[in-house]
């Protein structure tokens, strides 16, 4: 994990404000918000634009599992803040992001279990593609559990400073009526990867005339234009799934 952080620090300057300023780009550090269909305000300054891009990204969507919010869970963003390798890692979710990180942590040396609500990994993908990814995951020794109903999450605080907490995920086989079907999976680190939601709050989209789709966030056409043709939204790129899946192989 220390090597991972060093590598990340080594490339961080490529995303720095200083680098973009050196390329002739005006960089404003602060909270930006649309104030009209063609203006943005940041730190009290009004910037007028002909074209604008909403690229606020997305954040992890948390499933409604009792006890999960109170537990020390990780997401695809916070998992890289680990300073030590957990002996056991449980991943909730069978999509590309969760599987990518699950396979990486398994290869690092963790014992990884993936808990999936449905009966297949990456259910939105082609059968042939899923079969290839599944074979790769099983070859690496991942423990995949399907058809699960999540009951609750419990946790115990670390006994000593610097130790991992103990997290317990209680599940049962979905559709089973037997009283003895409850299972518990214990781990030192829990990664939640059950989808993402767009970060579209507090940026003044309504003032810019940008319509929001309740399911997918900002409504865009095939050219990624919003309902304000001068504003594009790039929080979700169709080819990103292809890139993610390729890393699994």
Which helices and strands occur, and which strands form pairs?
Elements: H1 2-11, H2 17-22, E1 32-36, E2 39-42, E3 45-48, E4 52-54, E5 58-60, E6 73-74, E7 88-92, H3 96-108, E8 111-115, H4 127-139, E9 143-145, E10 148-156, E11 166-173, E12 183-187, E13 189-192, E14 196-198, E15 212-213, E16 217-218, E17 231-233, H5 240-247
Parallel strand pairs: 4-17, 6-13, 7-8, 7-13, 8-9
Antiparallel strand pairs: 1-2, 2-3, 5-14, 10-11, 11-12, 15-16
CATH homologous superfamily (4th level) name of the largest domain: FAD/NAD(P)-binding domain
Average of per-residue pLDDT values: 88
Number of domains: 2
Report Rg.
21 Å
As laid out across the biggest beta sheet, the strand order is 6-13-7-8-9
Largest sheet geometry: 5 strands, parallel
Report helical residue fraction: 10-25%
Count of distinct strands = 17
